[in-house]
């Protein structure tokens, strides 16, 4: 995968941050897996450099895509700046794979045999700042729509994935249904390649469902995000679908 994080990993970044915090648009865009950065204290979690920069460590292209979508809607963008191998911010603290020992076919030795104290330290250091920042960003915008952005590998456990874009939802399917009604031009599927039973909707469940906030997760196959131009094209496409879907829901609410 040729698309790297939008900024140098040598740049000192907070664990989580909001970009365009004062933007007043209709969305709050989120990327929980925006960065492959592993703090030096973890000694790369015992994995090779190849694994540490692979889809096991982050969602290649997703952070750049999320930022472009947020910019098109003049909306804030909340991102985690730490690899999901350290802590997966789209998992609750009690989930076993919040600090995964295995990602697809890749063993992560640095996550094997963690003590409760070590787990709690990672939760406090890497999940709580992200959770708190996202909650504060959303609380300041009661009517904002939550959109989370992810990418997935074209080949998983040796099997080719034909799906190109997944529109993922939990029990609230309003926005997902509206997006699926207008989406076209790709192999687009509901709740693929991941679904709620795979444990991927934590952010939606934690930050949108309790208040009835409109929400959706967008999954894009990462070979469609291999260059800056490809990311721009996808951002235009997804933003167009979101714009049409939100307009349709607003019209239905006003009818």
Characterization of the model:
With 255 residues, the chain is an alpha/beta fold. It has a single domain (16-254), classed as Aminopeptidase (3-Layer(aba) Sandwich), CATH 3.40.630. The protein contains 6 helices and 11 strands. It has helices at 49-52, 62-72, 116-139, 174-182, 202-207, 228-254; strands at 16-19, 27-31, 77-80, 102-103, 106-107, 145-152, 155-156, 159-160, 165-168, 188-190, 215-221. The strands form 3 sheets. A 7-stranded mixed beta sheet has the order 1-3-2-6-11-9-10, sandwiched between helices. Helix 2 (62-72) crosses helix 6 and helix 4 packs across helix 6. The N and C termini lie far apart (46 Å).
Helix and strand layout, with pairings?
Blueprint: E1 16-19, E2 27-31, H1 49-52, H2 62-72, E3 77-80, E4 102-103, E5 106-107, H3 116-139, E6 145-152, E7 155-156, E8 159-160, E9 165-168, H4 174-182, E10 188-190, H5 202-207, E11 215-221, H6 228-254
Parallel strand pairs: 2-3, 2-6, 6-11, 9-10
Antiparallel strand pairs: 1-3, 4-5, 7-8, 9-11
Short description:
By secondary structure, this protein is α/β, with parallel strands linked by helices.
Terminal residue distance: 46 Å
Task: Briefly note the structural class of the backbone.
Answer: alpha/beta
Total strands: the figure is 11
Given as residue ranges, the uncertain stretches (5+ residues, pLDDT < 50) are: 6-10
What is the molecular shape?
globular
Measured as a percent range, the helix fraction is 25-40%
What's the order of the H and E elements? Answer: EEHHEEEHEEEEHEHEH
Tell me about the biggest sheet? 7 strands, mixed
């Amino acid at each position: 995968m040729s698309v790297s994080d939008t900024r140098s990993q040598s740049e000192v970044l907070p664990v989580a941050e909001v970009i365009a915090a004062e933007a007043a648009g209709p969305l709050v865009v989120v990327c929980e897996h925006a960065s492959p950065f592993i703090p030096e204290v973890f000694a790369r979690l015992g994995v090779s450099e190849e694994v540490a920069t692979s889809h096991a460590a982050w969602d290649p292209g997703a952070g750049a895509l999320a930022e472009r979508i947020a910019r098109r809607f003049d909306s804030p963008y909340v991102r985690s700046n730490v690899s999901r191998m350290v802590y997966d911010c789209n998992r609750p603290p009690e989930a076993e794979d919040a600090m995964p020992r295995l990602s697809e076919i890749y063993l992560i030795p640095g996550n094997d045999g963690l003590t409760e104290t070590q787990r709690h330290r990672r939760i406090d250091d890497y999940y709580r700042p992200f959770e708190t920042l996202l909650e504060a960003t959303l609380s300041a915008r009661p009517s904002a729509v939550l959109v989370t952005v992810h990418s997935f590998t074209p080949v998983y456990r040796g099997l080719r994935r034909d799906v190109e874009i997944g529109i993922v939802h939990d029990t609230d399917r309003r926005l997902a249904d509206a997006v699926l009604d207008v989406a076209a031009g790709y192999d687009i599927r509901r709740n693929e390649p991941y679904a709620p039973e795979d444990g991927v909707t934590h952010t939606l469940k934690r930050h949108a469902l309790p208040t009835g906030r409109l929400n959706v997760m967008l999954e894009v196959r990462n070979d469609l995000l291999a260059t800056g131009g490809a990311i721009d094209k996808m951002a235009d496409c997804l933003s167009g679908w979101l714009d049409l879907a939100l307009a349709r829901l607003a019209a239905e609410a006003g009818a």
